[in-house]
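Final report, closing paragraph on structural work. Over the funding period we assembled a curated collection of sequence-structure pairs, and we close with a single example.
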Amino acid sequence: MKTLCVIPARFASTRFPGKILADINGKPMIERVYEKVCQVKNLDKILIATDHQEVFQLLNEKKLPVMMSSAKHISGTDRCIEVFNKMDSFDYLLNVQGDEPGIDPNVLDHLISEFDKEDDPQIATLNSSLSHEKDIHNPDNVKLVKAIDNKVLYFSRLPIPFIKNQSQNHSFQKHIGVYLFHKDAIDRIASLEASQLELAESLEQLRWMEHGMRICSYDCDYDSVSIDSPEDLVQYLTSLES
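Its predicted structure, as stored:
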């Protein structure tokens, strides 16, 4: 199976405009993400997809693989699908966020290898355990619950499930925002309209689930850190020094 990885690089972030060009030890953040993805063994091609001419020119000068995409997309997934549909002969599409410079290449290889084992692969993602109360109740940490066959039952910004018996020990699972799509799922995703659950939680993956699509999630030890604000960047840079 041939896998294309697309790293969406949207310039106009609401909370941190231009964050993909933020300097991380002498290189823009998007380049740091690309370098990490280059360490993934099970990829056949990597492309950065941007909607901004400045980003395109900078990456071109650095001789990084970049493609212009529409500025009308409302999600990174839409941007990735646009690029995938312009390419030939790929079976899987891997969407890696452009604001996670610390992404672990090993967990991406794990995602691809587990997806290969599925009888009916559609969409897959990753999850890791949450242990601190403040992280469990932070709505920026999307939580998920899944069945014993790894099929996701629901994603939410609230802690799920509700623990009625407070003496019960439960491991809450944090969603890691990377997605792997089978080519047959991509055409269907592109045709789906926004759903009520998606709008309520502001989570695009709920649209796919509401329309009956199967999402699997695999356990990993990676604790994702996305750069959503200048404060996040400062915290990330400080962590690199420690």
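The first strand starts at residue 3 and ends at 9. Residues 105-116 form the longest helix (12 residues). We thank the funder for supporting this effort.
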